[in-house]
């Protein structure tokens, strides 16, 4: 693509970065290289550097280049799942005896990985409210290797100041890792704010259609990218070519989908704020949401996730989750269809009894791109 290096528009990058027409046929969509190995032109004579698809695959490479461009990074790595990406990252940058700071509100799978798996390997951790910069600074130790950030957090939609935390991490000689899954690179670019590593569950907004599981890491440091690639190849949890192709197909429409997700979520949040059965609403776009001013500073818009608590407690929350029609009861998020869940019994059940335990009366919505009036009517019926 002539002048591609000068392209900066997000939607243009989403459609074209890493996805030039196939030189063999002119196909405008990258092929699915459903292959395990490659013919070598003599021993060590690799065509394009490809020898075995765990190490590299052209379809996965196209996705990795696209994701790096969207996040403003220099190296992207695509994994079989978000958790595979997280595990590979932490085992690369940490060793037994090292320490990480994690959010006191985070995805249950992240907490399970750190507290139940990597802790047995010798990794130490402290959950900290990331909006409290002084608390984060106080939690850092000489052996701290990473400050792990979610913003917005899952499921309470807390906001962390990425630039401020990047300064804390730099002072401590630690890496700032930002899970950007809820925002997506369309709404927030952590590397530009000082982060060292961006993590994604590409299953969510990047894929966007609830038809593929995947994960990604994006970095700006070439040496760190090479080290991560070495561990990715050694550990083997890579994205398959068809999964990479599906994710590439989804990412092309990320910008237009996120615009609709954000618009619909804002309508839903405003509706819930005025409902008598709702005790509180968590959405970064609300002016009284904790961290709203920081979100305004570092996000393009406020995302498609809304959480709320019921005035009548846990059983009322369960009834609402089971009473919708358009909002599908299910885990995950970020697809074109709207989802509803009860975090305490579903995605965050592994955090029960821990510092990350979520309120029992909490409902989490992933607001899709359906007609907003239909979504509001569905919630009105469920709330009764």
Characterization of the model:
The chain has helices spanning 10-16, 58-71, 82-93, 108-121, 133-139, 162-172, 184-187, 222-235, 241-251, 254-273, 292-298, 314-323, 372-383, and strands spanning 75-79, 99-103, 124-128, 144-150, 175-179, 197-200, 215-219, 278-282, 305-310, 328-329, 339-341, 362-366. β2, α4 and β3 (124-128) form a beta-alpha-beta unit. α1 (10-16) runs antiparallel to α2, α3 (82-93) crosses α8 (222-235) and α12 (314-323) packs across α13 (372-383). The longest helix has 20 residues, at 254-273. It is an alpha/beta fold and 384 residues long. It is built from 13 helices and twelve strands. The chain has a seven-stranded mixed sheet, with helices on both faces. It has a five-stranded mixed sheet with strand order 8-9-12-11-10. The mean pLDDT is 96. The protein is globular and about 75 Å long. The protein has two domains: 7-251, Type I PLP-dependent aspartate aminotransferase-like (Major domain) (Aspartate Aminotransferase, domain 2, 3-Layer(aba) Sandwich); 255-383, Aspartate Aminotransferase, domain 1 (Alpha-Beta Complex).
